[in-house]
Specification:
By secondary structure, the protein is an alpha+beta fold. A hairpin with a 2-residue loop joins strand 4 and strand 5. Helix content is 40%, strand content 24%. It has two domains: 134 residues, no CATH class; 144 residues, Immunoglobulins (Immunoglobulin-like, Sandwich), CATH 2.60.40.10. It has eight helices and eight strands. The protein has a five-stranded mixed beta sheet, with no helix packed on it.
C-alpha cells in the first residue's frame, strides 16, 4: 500500500472518483442522502484541492506546502471557484441550473486533476507530495504555532458541521399563494371588457398553494363601482356576486420545470346592471362568517370587506 501510495497520487484519484460517482447519482436521482454526502465535498473541497494540487505538486519545501495548508486552501479556493463557474454559466444559454453546474464543476475538477497528475509525475520522486497515511501535528513548530493549528482545525470542523446542519435542516422558505385570472382561452389576454346586461362572459380563476400547509381558500366575487377623488377612492356601489370554496394542499415551487397550474376554475358570469364596474375577485384564507345578499349595496363597508382579502385581482367591465 505504501509503495502504491508513493507511485500514484491516491488523494487526487480519490477526488476524481468521488466526482465521477456523483454524476449518475444526480442524473438518476438516486439516494438523496448519498448525493448530499458526496455533493458537499464536490462543491466545497474537491475543486480547491485539485487546483492546489496542480499548483503545488511538491511536498513541504521551498516549492511546496504542507497538508494542513492544502486543506485550508482547498476550502477557500473551492468557495471562490464554484461561484465563478456559476457566474460564467449565467452568461451562457444553459444558465445556472443543476445539470450545467454539475458538469461544469466536474470538467474543472477533471481538467485540473489531470494537469495536477501531469505536474506530479514531472516532479522528482523525492519531492512529490504524498498525503501522509498517519496525520499528526508538526513537531518542529512552536507551541503557539501548534495551538493555532489546533484552533484552525477546530474552526474548519465547526464550519463543516454547521454547513451540514443548515443543509440537512428542513427549510420553510418563502410562503405565498399564486392567484390569477386568465382569459377564456387560458391565456393572459382576451378578457371580457365590454358586455351587455345578462350577457354571459367567462374567465379562468387560478390558485397555486405554496404556503407549506393545506389551506382552505374562499374566493369572493364582487361588483364594484368606484371613483377616485383627490387620490381617495369612493365606493358608490358594491354588490356581492358569488363565493367559491377551495381546499388545496401545498406544492413546492419547481423553477426547473415548465410552469403548470395547480387549480383552475372556469367561471361564467353575467351582470344585470349598467355602468363601469370593477369585477373584484378576493381570495381569503380564513372563513368569512358574514352572509351577504346579492341585492344589498355594501358600499358603506367596502373598505372592511376588501381589507380582509389575502390576495385580490380584478377586471374592469363596461356594461351597456
Amino acid at each position: 500500500m505504501a509503495r502504491l501510495h508513493s507511485l500514484y497520487p491516491l488523494d487526487l484519484l480519490l477526488c476524481l472518483l468521488v466526482s465521477l460517482l456523483l454524476v449518475p447519482l444526480v442524473f438518476f436521482n438516486i439516494e438523496p442522502m448519498l448525493r448530499l454526502i458526496l455533493g458537499l465535498p464536490f462543491l466545497l473541497f474537491v475543486p480547491g484541492y485539485v487546483l492546489v494540487f496542480a499548483l503545488f505538486p511538491a511536498r513541504k519545501t521551498d516549492r511546496g506546502i504542507d497538508t494542513l495548508e492544502r486543506v485550508v486552501l482547498s476550502f477557500g479556493l473551492s468557495i471562490a471557484v464554484v461561484p465563478l463557474i456559476g457566474l460564467l454559466l449565467n452568461y451562457t444559454p444553459w444558465g445556472i441550473r443543476l445539470e450545467p453546474v454539475l458538469l461544469s464543476v466536474l470538467f474543472f475538477i477533471i481538467g485540473m486533476g489531470l494537469y495536477g497528475m501531469y505536474r506530479w509525475r514531472k516532479t522528482d520522486v523525492e519531492e512529490r507530495f504524498v498525503l501522509p497515511l498517519k496525520l499528526s501535528l508538526p513537531r518542529q513548530e512552536s507551541r503557539v504555532d501548534r495551538a493555532l493549528t489546533v484552533i484552525l482545525i477546530v474552526a474548519i470542523l465547526v464550519v463543516l458541521v454547521s454547513l451540514v446542519y443548515v443543509i440537512a435542516l428542513p427549510r420553510t422558505g418563502e410562503t405565498f399563494t399564486e392567484f390569477y385570472l386568465l382569459g377564456p382561452q387560458g391565456n393572459a389576454e382576451g378578457y371580457p371588457r365590454n358586455l351587455t346586461t345578462q350577457q354571459n362572459a367567462t374567465v379562468i380563476i387560478g390558485i397555486a398553494n405554496h404556503e407549506h400547509h393545506d389551506v382552505n381558500y374562499t374566493i369572493e366575487i364582487w361588483l364594484v363601482n368606484q371613483t377616485i377623488v383627490n387620490n381617495h377612492t369612493l365606493y358608490n356601489q358594491m354588490w356581492f356576486l358569488d363565493m367559491i370554496p377551495v381546499n388545496l394542499p401545498s406544492q413546492p415551487v419547481n423553477t426547473g420545470e415548465p410552469w403548470s397550474p395547480q387549480w383552475n376554475h372556469t367561471y361564467t358570469f353575467s351582470i344585470n346592471r349598467t355602468g363601469t364596474f370593477k369585477l373584484a375577485f378576493l381570495l381569503l384564507t380564513t372563513p368569512d362568517t358574514a352572509r351577504y345578499q346579492s341585492d344589498t349595496n355594501y358600499r358603506d363597508v367596502a373598505n372592511q370587506i376588501l381589507a380582509k382579502a389575502y390576495r385580490e385581482t380584478h377586471l374592469w367591465l363596461t356594461i351597456r
